[in-house]
Design brief:
about 220 residues; alpha+beta; Protein Transport Mog1p, Chain A; 5 helices; about 35% helix
Length: about 220
């Protein structure tokens, strides 16, 4: 088998690093960070003296108190099918508060085929806040899916330096938790990408695994 050209090899090796850096930014200082949550809470108006008291914290108990272990949320069979050549253990993504959000990624270059999969969980204080966050991320370009209490699938084919990459993202709300799955792939020999059907079905398979893990470990 002929070896990959140096620029392609560098791209394959650096792509996971770049993606992890983006995720790390989002979780540490970006819109998914704890500081962003704090700003949202600080901006909420204080209740007036005449307002009716809401339910107590004990009454409005959260369905999910914390995220599950993310690297065990996708089955080994799914990882092997979607990311050939990757270790099934995965790599946990850094998070500032693991009681609120956790994530894991898998990536591998096998022959000329590169695949990336990641799954993330975020637990909100209530179903209402999870619904609000889910709605805020809806750009109107997703296809509804029957997973959890609401889900959508978005996918796209991009081209950079004549190399095509196809990516699918599944966002799910399950009670007070949000689950996001990203799956993509590229063929460095043909400069093409997997079919839309392959990538979409792969992302949905991983999303179903992740929601099942959420329900089995931290909820009902």
């Amino acid at each position: 088998m002929r070896s990959l050209p140096l620029p392609v090899m560098l791209t394959a090796r650096l792509l996971p690093v770049a993606l992890l850096a983006c995720v790390g930014w989002a979780w540490s200082t970006g819109p998914m960070s704890d500081s962003a949550d704090k700003k949202h809470k600080d901006a909420s108006p204080e209740p007036t003296a005449s307002a009716s008291p809401g339910p107590s914290a004990s009454v409005a108990a959260r369905t999910y108190a914390k995220p599950p272990a993310p690297c065990g949320a996708v089955t080994a069979a799914t990882v092997k099918a979607l990311v050939p050549g990757a270790g099934t253990a995965g790599k946990e993504l850094a998070a500032t508060d693991e009681s609120v959000r956790r994530g894991c990624s898998w990536s591998a270059l096998k022959g000329y085929d590169y695949h990336w999969l990641d799954v993330s969980f975020e637990v909100k204080d209530s179903d209402a806040l999870a619904k609000q966050a889910y709605a805020a991320g809806d750009k109107g370009d997703g296809t509804p899916q029957e997973i959890g209490d609401g889900a959508r699938l978005t996918s796209a084919l991009t081209t950079k330096d004549k190399q095509k990459t196809r990516e699918a993202i599944v966002t799910v709300r399950a009670a007070n938790a949000l689950v996001t799955v990203t799956y993509n792939g590229s063929d460095f020999e043909t400069k093409g990408a997997p079919s839309a059907d392959t990538v979409d079905k792969g992302a949905l398979r991983a999303a179903r695994d992740a929601v099942a893990a959420l329900r089995a470990t931290t909820g009902v």
